[in-house]
Structure formats: structure tokens, C-alpha cells
Design brief:
alpha/beta, Rossmann fold, Dihydrodipicolinate Reductase, domain 2, seven-stranded mixed sheet, 10 helices, 16 strands, 37% helix, binds nicotinamide-adenine-dinucleotide
């Protein structure tokens, strides 16, 4: 891996599955970053990951990592319930932050975070890694620059239990630990909430990235044979309409995709399981030349590209292409609105909601 001269010194908080499968390797491969520190209270995980990935330092205590002046930025890779409080601590210590998606679980907890991010002037990014998929990034640029006014957008995310065989084959063997710090209770037992937070956060961010601000949703949910099906009608701020499907678990292959219809063209996208590191197949039709455009996107290691984008913004002042704090909050708002809409059976405006996803 060819590295630049100036590397962003990153400390990764959490040695759980996502760090083992993505962040440690991604930071090490990123051209402009260094895996300077790792942190986990679980001794067995921290020691094993330290031996494998060779950071300069390892910390059992998060506060001690934040007190290390060599750490310039932190990746928060813990359970969703800890994201906002732990990201807030890093911001207060003056560190730049890349926090895993979803940003958090409760809209109120994000308020103090917003104030502190503004006050400290740090770069804050949410781990919506798909924004760095070169096919999706190409589609987004095409929509913004060439498609004119938008009319409609469809996006879908169908999780499948069959994909675990693929995921297990593609990822390194994951170590787990009895000592890992987990949220109290069992947040994953509330499937409606858990599926929305973990998968819905990708779907909503995709819709916003491609279609713009969402102002209102009307959602229906069917729960049958242990599966969940959300059909969500969406109103965008520009007057265009959308339809989002979230299916967990589909009886078939894992599937994610989108179609966008505009004044001067249209876009179709088929997204692959992120562990393949394969660019989405997108076709962008332009009425200007009557041609479909389709990028190759050879480097589609989205977890690495998101670290490179994050470091570029911090080190060189490059425009932030990843999801910002406001994107994370807006995605949470959309997910809360979906939950309220299902409960009430009516459309719900995003600016009217509060509370938990
Ligand atoms: N972007 C993606 O594609 C993607 C994929 C999978 C998971 N995720 C997200 O990644 C996040 C983490 O998932 P995971 O399965 O790795 O979580 P996990 O809970 O299994 O692991 C987190 C680790 O952090 C450690 N930890 C937590 N709080 C700590 C503290 N205060 N101090 C020190 N160590 C602490 C725990 O001991 C644990 O080992 C989740 O929010 C999930 O939604 C994202």
C-alpha cells in the first residue's frame, strides 16, 4: 500500500466484529492514515487485535486513549446505544470523529453533540460507508449535475439469512469475547427497532444521499412468519416522491438497489454486499446524448475509502463527502418518523418527531 507522507493518527474504539472485519484493515490500507491506537476493555480482544494489527499503543481505558495527544481522530465502533455518549467524549477532547451508523438511538441525545461539534470545530463523520461506493458516488454526482429536477425515487434493502454463508467466507474469522462491554438488557431482541437501526439506517441514508432531504413519511409494516416488511412512502423537500422497501429477512438473496427518475435522465443501481468490495452496478441515462453511462469503480473498498475521505478533510481541508453530523441526525429523524407512522397509521412529518427510533 502506497502511503502519503503525512498520516492521520487514528485511534479505533472497539475491537468487535466491525473493527475486525473492516476498520483495522481499512485504516492500515488507507493511503493517508495510520492505525495509531486501538482500545477495548476486553483484554483478550485487545491483545489479539494488537498482536495482529500492530498499532503503536493499545488502551483498555477510553479516557486514557482520549488523553493521548498523539491521537488525532477516533473511530467509534461500539454498540449503537454507546455511539453518541462516546463520540461526544471524543469531540470534547478535541478529536475528530468517525462514528459507526446509526448515529444514535435517541434524537435528544444528539443536541449536546451538535453544540460541541460546532464549538470545537472538529470534523465529524457518520459511517455510512456506501456513500463511498464508486458506483453510488457516480450516480449521486450524475443526479446532482445532469439530471435536472427530480420526480421520483425508489430504493430497497432486503436482508437475507442466506448472505451469512457469503459474509462468513469473505470476512476474517471473528473473535468474540465474554468480556466485551455491551448495552444493558438485550436491545437486539426488539426486532422492529433493531432492524430499523441497523438496516434502515443504510436505506434512509441512500434515499437522502440520492434524493435529498426527506420531509415526511407514511409507513406500513407487515410482520409475518418472523419476517418484517416496511413499505414507506416518502415526500422529499423538492416536491418529488419516493418509495422505500425494507425487508428482513427476504426469502431469497440479499438485495439492495435504487431507481431515480429526473427531468433529463434516469438512474438504476444494483448494490452488492459490502464485503465483496465490488462497485455497485449503476446505469445513468442522459437525454443529452441518448447514452447510458456505467463506471467500473475498480476500488470499491468502501470502509477504506471512507477513512481516506475523512483523513483528506482533516489533513487537507477537502470537502467532506461522507455523511455529516446533520445527515446522521436527519436519518435518525426519518427512522423515528417511520416508527411513529407505523404506530399511528398516518403520514408523519420529520420536523414533528422526538424520542427514540
Ligand atoms: N457500516 C457497516 O457496514 C456496519 C456493519 C456492521 C456493524 N456496523 C456497526 O458497528 C457498530 C459496532 O458493531 P460490533 O458488532 O462490532 O459491536 P460490538 O458491541 O460487538 O463490539 C464493540 C466493542 O467495543 C467495546 N467497547 C464498548 N464500549 C467500550 C468502552 N467504553 N471502552 C472500551 N471498549 C468498549 C466492547 O468491549 C466490544 O468489544 C454497530 O453500531 C453496528 O451498527 C456497521
Amino acid at each position: 500500500m502506497k502511503k502519503t507522507e503525512r498520516l492521520l493518527r487514528i485511534g479505533v474504539l472497539g475491537c468487535g466484529p466491525i473493527s475486525q472485519a473492516a476498520h483495522f484493515d481499512a485504516v492500515r490500507k488507507a493511503r493517508n492514515a495510520e492505525l495509531y491506537a486501538i482500545c477495548d476493555r476486553a483484554d483478550d480482544l485487545r491483545e489479539a487485535m494488537g498482536a495482529m494489527h500492530r498499532p503503536q499503543v493499545t488502551y483498555a481505558d477510553y479516557d486514557a486513549m482520549l488523553a493521548d495527544p498523539q491521537v488525532e481522530a477516533v473511530i467509534v465502533a461500539t454498540a449503537d446505544q454507546f455511539h453518541v455518549p462516546l463520540a461526544l467524549k471524543a469531540v470534547e477532547a478535541g478529536k475528530h470523529v468517525l462514528v459507526e451508523k446509526p448515529l444514535g438511538v435517541n434524537l435528544e441525545e444528539t443536541e449536546q453533540l451538535r453544540q460541541q461539534v460546532q464549538a470545537r470545530g472538529v470534523v465529524f463523520q457518520v459511517g455510512n460507508n456506501k456513500r463511498f461506493d464508486p458506483g453510488i458516488a457516480f450516480a449521486q454526482r450524475f443526479i446532482r449535475e445532469e439530471m435536472g429536477a427530480l420526480m421520483g425515487l425508489k430504493a430497497w434493502y432486503c436482508d437475507s439469512t442466506y448472505r451469512y454463508a457469503m459474509t462468513d467466507n469473505l470476512q476474517p474469522l471473528i473473535l468474540s469475547s465474554q468480556q466485551a462491554t455491551r448495552p444493558s438488557g438485550d436491545p437486539k431482541s426488539d426486532k422492529r427497532r433493531y432492524f430499523m437501526l441497523t438496516h434502515g439506517s443504510h436505506l434512509v441514508d441512500m434515499a437522502r444521499f440520492l434524493g435529498g432531504e426527506i420531509v415526511s413519511v407514511q409507513a406500513r409494516l407487515v410482520e409475518r412468519f418472523g419476517a418484517y416488511c416496511w413499505f414507506i412512502a416518502v415526500d422529499f423537500a423538492d416536491g418529488s416522491v419516493g418509495h422505500l422497501d425494507l425487508i428482513v429477512a427476504v426469502r431469497g438473496d440479499w438485495e439492495e438497489g435504487f431507481q431515480v427518475y429526473g427531468e433529463h435522465g434516469s438512474v438504476k443501481g444494483k448494490v452488492f454486499l459490502p464485503w465483496f468490495h465490488k462497485s455497485s452496478e449503476v446505469e445513468c441515462f442522459s437525454v443529452q446524448d441518448g447514452l447510458y453511462r456505467r463506471p467500473l469503480g475498480a476500488d470499491a473498498y468502501t470502509y477504506k475509502l471512507q477513512v481516506e475521505g475523512f483523513a483528506d478533510t482533516i489533513l487537507n481541508g477537502a470537502e467532506q463527502t461522507g455523511a455529516r453530523l446533520e445527515d446522521g441526525i436527519a436519518a435518525m429523524r426519518a427512522m423515528v418518523a417511520v416508527a411513529r407512522s407505523v404506530e399511528r397509521g398516518t403520514a408523519v412529518r420529520l420536523d414533528s418527531v422526538s424520542g427514540e427510533v
